[in-house]
């Protein structure tokens, strides 16, 4: 349906790490929630935030991110779902969420209406995710990302975020399902996305710096290009190489690792995807003098050593050793030839250092001694064309 089928209620900032002008702003938008169901949307949005900040590499980049929630009520619940997909037809929702008859897992909304509503309420937005109030599996990632509240909802959201925010490609090797015609061999055109390629040459492949000299290239080859490759991972998990079968094709296209969240849900992002996320978000981290903070943290922690219980002492001592290494290394970076900040790896290291310092905050607060029962060392998080969501591993649903 459309804009006559609901109301934009308003926006709420639910994670505040600083001025919107200086942070990377995520906006979570309600679709297919009736007015009486908006409290459930609040819960769904918070669940996604919790999942996001518990997922690498976002867990070490939290300070770069603000999150806003846009409450929008609809006349009906859910999304349009064709009878041919097992649904019951159309419903009246504000952004006209709908599953696509040709690929039932493809869930889209009216992107223009979503962008207009978000811009009017959160002008500094960087990425938009629309949460659709249906338990039917689906999602997509285009100008805005959408995902349903299926049992694997949060994983779908992380996958679609990869598309919309970071330009990541689908790494799975089919369009509608394995065995389909027309998807045997990838066209001889290099994809623009960072995590898929037609190049299996160790010296020229776009993620070559991440590949070990002993990793075979290509790392796997599909013996039957009319089907998805059934072979298991021949190398230790997490090995970076060139695994054949990617970008909707059985052969002649390669992905960086055997498994990745952009290939199948409930897997970590691969190293190439993590690198792209870190490169994108690091400029939004708060400008801090990390070296000074680490030295101050070390000095204050040393003063508290005598008050710590033995278990706490051993854990903190390990962290101090790491901080000592950093204190030695940072001046070297400063004096290094060339510009060390051009090395993407430094951003992830600095983000992890910041996270380590935050974890030590319980020990360097003057007013409060550490409390092991509340997990003082564990860290506590602060409060293109549409692409279809992949099918859940092991499901018989087409994907």
Topology readout:
Elements: E1 6-15, E2 24-31, H1 38-53, E3 65-74, E4 98-99, E5 107-108, H2 111-121, E6 127-132, E7 139-141, E8 145-148, H3 153-166, E9 243-246, E10 249-255, H4 271-281, H5 290-304, H6 310-335, H7 344-359, H8 361-364
Parallel strand pairs: 2-3, 2-6, 6-8
Antiparallel strand pairs: 1-3, 4-5, 7-8, 9-10
Helix pairs in contact: 1-3, 5-6, 5-7
Description:
There is one protein chain. The protein is of the alpha/beta class and 399 residues long. It folds into 3 domains: 6-166, Collagenase (Catalytic Domain), CATH 3.40.390.10; 169-285, no CATH class; 288-374, no CATH class. It has 8 helices and 10 strands. The protein has helices spanning 38-53, 111-121, 153-166, 271-281, 290-304, 310-335, 344-359, 361-364, and strands spanning 6-15, 24-31, 65-74, 98-99, 107-108, 127-132, 139-141, 145-148, 243-246, 249-255. The strands form 3 sheets. The protein has a 6-stranded mixed sheet with strand order 1-3-2-6-8-7, sandwiched between helices. Strand 7 (139-141) and strand 8 (145-148) form a beta hairpin.
User: Strand sequence of the main sheet, in spatial order?
Assistant: 1-3-2-6-8-7
Structural class by SSE content: alpha/beta
Which overall shape is indicated by the principal axes computed on the Cα atoms?
A: globular
Please tell me the CATH architecture of the largest domain by its name: 3-Layer(aba) Sandwich
In which range does the helix fraction lie? 25-40%
> How widely separated are the two ends?
27 Å
User: Topology as H/E string?
Assistant: EEHEEEHEEEHEEHHHHH
Mean pLDDT, rounded to whole units?
83
Number of strands: 10
Briefly note the CATH topology name of the largest domain: Collagenase (Catalytic Domain)
- Count of structural domains: 3
Radius of gyration: 23 Å
Low-confidence stretches: 289-293, 308-312, 331-342, 360-385, 392-399
């Amino acid at each position: 349906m459309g804009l006559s089928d609901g109301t934009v209620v308003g926006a709420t900032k639910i994670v505040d790490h600083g001025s919107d002008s200086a942070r990377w702003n995520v906006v979570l938008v309600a679709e297919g929630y009736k007015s009486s169901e908006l409290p459930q949307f609040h819960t769904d949005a918070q669940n996604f935030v919790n999942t996001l900040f518990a997922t690498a590499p976002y867990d070490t980049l939290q300070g770069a991110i603000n999150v806003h929630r846009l409450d929008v009520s609809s006349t009906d619940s859910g999304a349009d779902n064709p009878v041919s997909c097992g649904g019951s037809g159309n419903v009246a929702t504000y952004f006209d969420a709908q599953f696509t008859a040709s690929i039932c897992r493809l869930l889209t909304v009216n992107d223009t209406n979503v962008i207009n509503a978000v811009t009017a309420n959160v002008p500094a937005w960087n990425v938009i995710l629309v949460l659709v109030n249906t338990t039917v599996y689906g999602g997509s990632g285009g100008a805005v990302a959408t995902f349903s509240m299926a049992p694997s909802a949060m994983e779908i959201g992380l996958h679609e975020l990869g598309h919309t925010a970071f330009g990541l490609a689908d790494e799975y090797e089919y369009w509608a399902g394995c065995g389909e015609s027309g998807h045997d061999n990838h066209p001889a055109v290099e994809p623009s996305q960072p995590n898929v390629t037609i190049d299996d040459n160790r010296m020229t492949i776009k993620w070559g710096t991440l590949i070990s000299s002993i990793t075979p290239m290509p790392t796997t080859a599909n013996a039957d290009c009319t089907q998805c490759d059934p072979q298991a991972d021949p190398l230790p998990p997490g090995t970076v190489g060139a695994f054949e079968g990617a970008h909707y094709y059985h052969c002649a296209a390669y992905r960086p690792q055997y498994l990745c969240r952009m290939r199948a849900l409930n897997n970590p992002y691969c190293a190439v995807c993590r690198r792209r996320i870190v490169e994108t978000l690091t400029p939004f981290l708060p400008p801090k003098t990390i070296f000074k903070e680490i030295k101050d943290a070390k000095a204050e922690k040393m003063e508290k050593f005598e008050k710590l219980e033995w278990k706490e002492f051993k854990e903190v001592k390990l962290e101090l050793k790491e901080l000592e290494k950093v204190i030695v290394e940072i001046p070297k970076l400063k004096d290094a030839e060339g510009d060390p900040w051009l090395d993407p790896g430094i951003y992830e290291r600095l983000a992890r250092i910041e996270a380590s310092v935050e974890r030590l905050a319980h020990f360097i607060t003057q007013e409060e001694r550490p409390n092991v029962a509340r997990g003082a060392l564990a860290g506590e998080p602060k409060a293109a064309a549409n692409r279809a969501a992949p099918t859940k591993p092991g499901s018989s649903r087409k994907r």
